[in-house]
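On clarity, I found the account of how folds are encoded harder to follow than it need be. An entry of this sort, consisting of the sequence and the corresponding backbone structure tokens, reads as follows:
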Amino acid sequence: MDTPLRADVPLRVLIIEDSASDAALEVRELENASYQVTPVVTETADGMKAALAEQAFDIVLADNRLPHFDAIGALAVLKESGLDIPLIVVTGTMGDEAAVELVKAGADDYVLKDSMLRLPVVVERALTALEERLKRRQAEEKLRQSEADFRALAESMPQIVWACHPDGANYYFNHQWVDYTGLTLEESYGAGWNTPFHPDDQQRAWEAWQNSTHNYVPYSLQCRLRRADGVYRWWLTRGVPLRNADGKVLKWFGTCTDIEEIKETQAALEHQARLLELSHDAILVWEWNGAITFWNHGAESTYGFPAAEAVGRVSHDLLQTHYPQGFASFQQELERAGAWAGELTQIQRDGHPITVESQCQVVHLSDGRRLVLETNRDVTMRKWAEEERLSLEHRLAESQKLESLGQLAGGIAHDFNNLLTAILGYSDLILASGPSTVDEVRPDLEEIKRAGERARVLTQQILAFSRRQALRPQVVLLDKIIRGTEPLLRRTIGEDIDLQIIDSPGLPPVEVDPHQFEQVVINLVLNARDAMPSGGHLTIETGTVELDEEFCHIHVGATPGSYVMLRVSDTGVGMDAATQERIFEPFFTTKAVGAGTGLGLATVYGIVKQSNGTIFATSEPGQGSSFAIYLPQAAQPEVPKELPIPPQARAGGRETILVVEDEEALCSLIERILAGVGYKTLIFSSAQEALAALEQGTSSFDMLLTDVMLPGPIQGHDLAQTILVSRPHLPVLFISGYARDALVHSGRLDESVNLLEKPFSPDSLRDMVRRVLDLPRESG
């Protein structure tokens, strides 16, 4: 027997068989064919479902005659799972009719147990068929995506865009066609596309199209098309065939461009001849070979060449005109269309390059000669101003996009934190409820809790990007933060990367949250490490800079002033311009799937912005990357702060807590946690309900515990302020997915605010409630 092509490769096999010896025989036959078999054997539908859920398989071998399960049942389970895994029936006997039914049901093939030598060949054939199916699906998906890309591009173009099958039957028009002609797509298909043509142009257009589709040559025609209001305008219609590698025509793509204005110019040339010399535009006429025959005063002013020097010279040589496709291609296009309009780059007599808007029109003389009337307008300064404006608009749009993404991310993170609080809280409560209750499900609960913890880290990164986290800034020296993280950084990057830290003696302090800014440094270093898979050099340096008006004009978001700079540079793979435009977007990553969340640089961006700083990246492919952060210099010197020693938290108490939270699951969780340590709770889902109950003489309470964001017009901060009017010394504890502007001002948490950020654990809630209740406060 020939060895299968897939020899010496792993093969994960799910065997549906109640006979251990038969299963062992199947494995042995495959191993004899040099497969590295990893088998899983089961004989029931439930066992098959569990196996498919637990791991991936390359092939399924199913006995057709088990006491409670057969191949038809196995095919049903496989279909229900949604997995595309070849299934081969292995049976003692099999009639032709039964074999046909199994193949119809989805089996890839069958093997009789007395012909097990065929098993490796059948397996190889089934695996090859699977590969072909996967390749075909990928090809179909690429084709669908390509078609979608084409349609998106076509719908964004100002011209009419159309597409046809190889035989010329059209199947697509963009919305410009419908808007201009007033025809529906159904009316345009078939021969309907010819309807809007002017009666004098219809036959000519039809014959030209038939010639192109029969001979597979480009289609080009100037014709008149009727607008929806009945007005005819001149259009340049062009179509080209799309061929495959063998030259076979696959499709036709074409455009219709409005040239009415150009045609009007052509018709009016004779009437404008006497006005040519008065024009400020450069107007020149040249023979088909390029020799200049006319050169007006506008041309003299534009280019600096007097008419006596210009006439007789070849136009494109004299002006060193740059045609995008070369002069020969330009002239062919001009000959085909009869007119051309666009931008050209030319050189003045003094050597200065200029950009001109050019309109060229072919003029046919009665003696058969062809002249070209070229009208050029110098738009160099306008182009420069336009490019500058577009550049500024683009940078502003990018900044606004990141701001919008931040607002969206913050809102999502708030709702997500509510869910995480419930998930983690109930997980903790169950895990702490005693071994007899949770031993059987403890691994599952611990996995749920670990997933929740990972989600909490992800949510905090989202909040950092959206600038909705509460910072606790201190006046610190940036060099100290960097040196403090140095041991961790060196362990993280490995020995193949050379790390150099360049301090700046006398560096002014900055006002940042030290812990958050440590995260900034770590994230930038991790990003640099990932950009140097084969090792390299990583430099972290600090310094002081003065950002002037010119710098801030180029770098949108920066303002002039004195700054402390942090620069992280690497010698890695670098980034192209398209990547640099998106590097601070959340979830954008160039890494492989599963290799990162895409939130590292987004987190850096959010923390820097919330610290009143700016960050910019410079990079080129293959030349490494550099991230520069500019932080305002602090107005006061560094003052080391001593961390206050919190009061000792007690297990619980007998106080009554007024709880205001709109998320029902959290209300139940909070009530259960606090009741478990002796507290009484009054639960309300909105500020309005709580205030109404207080007005009706609700029982007294010792503390207010409220979410910051509540439904209705009254938010948590407003509720607290209202209650504090009558009870100024009432302890208040806020809980929130993010603090928003009610509690955080310019990125800083108000010092008088007690805030427990979601998601929180039962222990942290119990401890925080006790601490807030025990804080010293004035009597009265």
Notes: Residues 619 and 625 are 4 Å apart (CA to CA).
